[in-house]
Amino acid sequence: MASNCLLYALRLWRYGTxxxxxxxxxxxxxxxxxxxxxxxxxxxxxxxxxxxxAPRPRWIPPLLFKGRExxxxxxxxxxxx
Length: 81
Known about the structure:
The chain is mainly β.
């Protein structure tokens, strides 16, 4: 299915909860990239984003592209000094 990172992130983001819409510069050009971070009850964080299957640097990004969902989990761990 063709989509883009903004449409994907807006579908997942729940305003007013512990979810965060994150905007950063794309690795493939000057344009923005969007992702969503979810804070879990135990303090861990899950990042979900939509990325192109075959990215390449370009001046103007395509409006829609074939891609895949990437999920990254950051577990909260106790550190002892």
